[in-house]
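Bumping with the actual sequence this time:
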Amino acid sequence: MNSNLNTLITDLDNTLYDWVGFYSKAFTAMLDRLVVLLQVSREQLVMDFREVHRRSGSSEQPFAVLDLPSVKARFPQRTRQELVVELDDVLHAFNASRKDNLHLYPGVEEALKYLRARDVAIIAVTDAAMVNAYYRLWVLGIAPLFTRIYVRDTTWQGHPNATRDEKLRPPAAVVRALPSSLTKPDPRLLATVLELENVQPDQACYVGDSIARDVLMAVRAGVKSAWARYGAEHDASAWAAIVEITHWTREDVRREEELAKEAQAVTPDFVLESFADILAVFKREVAR
């Protein structure tokens, strides 16, 4: 593939797989079991989860259940490892639902393999922590296709299985932590990735599901942008379940509203109805 376009930079959640769909189902399954075990109202547990998520700055902390006040009150003086045993049925509900509902969008694996076979570098940029992002790529069988994976945090953050699950630790050269001060859609984040990878802006195409975060960042950074339109469509009930436990503060919501307004004036270079459409982008550039 002899083109100036030689690098694909991609978001992960809701771009390669339906994060909202699988996570809302897995979390709900866990929450339902927790209500029965602790005999605590769903409303109280949701409030507790939201508070833990806000302290950690992330709405995806599967082991946040170990830090819930209701859990600590029910099982006082237990270590985290002991709590994992006590909550085995609860955690199993989350894991079983995730296994059933975490799938790649159609065409993702085939498209990534096609591009890698033609020496296109594939780089992931995600706000997720390593322990979540790499696990999903590993389970989905596509982790080896990535040249580099940029994550928000490379630590295990108190993960109870940190010593047992060595297989989930990616090669040190593959995963890098993004500067904590840089978040989407700050173009400096993408510029940092390009500099570290020795890639010029006109050599890369960035794909993501969010106009306000992914496309806006790419446009600001002078990189070709591809909007994964299919990833922006969510089941209303699934989205409501995510919003219910969000770590966002009122300030975060206000910032998102401002970004949404700014993004209205942004037009992506390409619109993808499925991930496989990214191949046409690269083939089109080759033909020029």
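The tokens above came from a reply further down the thread. Residues 7-18+104-287 form a domain with the Rossmann fold fold (CATH 3.40.50.1000).
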